Amino acid sequence: MNKALIIIDTQDSFFETDYWQEKYFLDFKKNLGSLVEHFNSANLPIIKVLHSREDMPDSPFNPASGLVKAMDFLPSSFTKVFYKSVHNAFTDTGLATWLKRHNIDTVVITGIRTEQCCETTARVASDLGFNVEFVTKATLTFDMKCPITNKLYPAEELKAKTNLVLAKRFASIQDPSDY
Fold it and tell me: Which of 15, 76, 128, 150 pairs with 103 at a CA distance of 20 to 30 A?
């Protein structure tokens, strides 16, 4: 089994959003950092995926903002970098082709936002035939208020729901200590 660590949207853009929350960030950094160390020491590929939206001029996700770059706690170099403009890391990026050319059959999903880009990438990866290991503790999301019911959903509840819908269907749920 050949694995690659996929780090999704862990970029400075999020620091400038109105929904950024620091309260879960330290645990996220620690957990993702331990995975990066493991993959580096095992000489396994580490893929950086950045969300980039040139069509949104005032967005922190627009490259002109200078914020579409990896957060400082991540390594300065990666095996490969891909840019995406949609929720998953596969559509129109070349990621699947690159993984297949390098005989990678298992992707380890981490990054920012658990229930959005990370979960969507996991589902698409599964549909494309990759084995998916979803490391929820190495993903980050934020408390959200439902625009329909006005109910507040804590980030930990959103992560639990992601585990529920992915486990044994689209991915195996892993802990950073599993590596």
Answer: 76
Neighbours of 14 (CB within 10 A): 21
Rounded to two decimals, what is the model's pTM? 0.96
Structure token pair of residue 59: 């967005």
User: For each of the chain's 179 residues, which pLDDT tens digit applies?
Assistant: 699 999 999 999 999 999 999 999 999 999 999 999 999 999 999 999 999 999 999 999 999 999 999 999 999 899 999 999 999 999 999 999 999 999 999 999 999 999 999 999 999 999 999 999 999 999 999 999 999 999 999 999 999 999 999 999 999 999 999 99
Token couple for 30: 């620690």
The answer to whether residues 22 and 14 touch, using CB atoms and an 8 Å cutoff, is no
For residue 135, what is the enclosing H or E element?
A: strand 131-140
SS3 106: strand
Angle between helices 155-166 and 119-127 (to 10 degrees): 10
In whole angstroms, give the CA distance from residue 167 to residue 11: 27
Long-range residue pairs from 124-127, CB within 8 A, at least 24 positions apart, any chain: 124/88, 124/89, 124/90, 124/91, 125/90, 125/170, 126/169, 126/170, 126/171
Tokens of 44: 């396994």
